[in-house]
Specification:
Length: about 220
């Protein structure tokens, strides 16, 4: 089955990691692990952290690779302790064939790994990029990704928390607000200012585009 061989790979590192105090290191790592665990209802997913501030995530269902990348950034921001500069990550999403997958992600190989790694090496000032084997797909997603990236980069911790919760635990807004210990009004305010619906629409756009290539 060809489809099962096409996967998503996210290569990432923490932004300004040298400014994250040693006492917060474990909190950052935990945030990444929690995000991956909470993404498992969507798709099997594996995380490996190496060199302290770099990591790779393998997403079995490639149509969810973007959602998980955004969730990772949202989680980092949401978990930033008060008074600290907001945590964030640079993430390059690669989608493609995986010819060899080892238990040790970093030694695995295949198109998805190469595209993700290459994209990451050229990420420049961006914090989100997407690379696939399909040039027209890449063209279609590139501009809208730059807009989305800009939005996500500007999120506050509260905005990030609201979007994260809505993405991974979709339910009525009043219930989400309750889970986050917010008034509905407060929740709606952060959801609106984070452009939450636009981000969900962007994720859906990615999913519908990608499903045309992998069915």
């Amino acid at each position: 089955n060809l489809k099962s061989m096409i996967k998503g790979v996210i290569t990432g590192d923490l932004v300004n990691s040298t400014n994250i105090a040693a006492k917060w290191r474990q909190t950052v790592v935990d945030a990444l692990h929690v995000c991956v665990e909470e993404s498992i209802p969507l798709t099997p997913v594996k995380l490996e952290i190496y060199r302290g501030d770099s990591f790779q995530v393998v997403v079995d269902k490639p149509e969810y690779a973007l959602a998980i990348a955004i969730a990772l950034r949202a989680k980092l921001k949401a978990e930033t302790p008060d008074g600290q500069k907001l945590w964030d990550a640079r993430l390059a999403v690669g989608v493609g064939d995986i010819s060899f997958e080892n238990d040790n992600i970093v030694t695995s190989d295949g198109e998805a790994f190469r595209l993700s790694g290459h994209s990451f090496d050229h990420i420049g000032k961006k914090r989100l990029s997407i690379s696939t084997p399909w040039p027209d797909f890449n063209t279609n997603i590139e501009l809208v990704t730059r807009f989305a990236d800009d939005l996500i980069t500007s999120w506050t911790a509260k905005q990030a928390r609201v979007v994260y919760q809505s993405m991974l635990f979709p339910k009525l807004q009043k219930d989400l607000a309750e889970e986050l210990d917010m008034t509905r009004q407060n929740f709606n305010y952060h959801w609106g200012s984070a452009r939450g619906q636009l981000i969900l629409d962007y994720i859906e756009y990615f999913k519908s585009l990608i499903s045309k290539y992998i069915r």
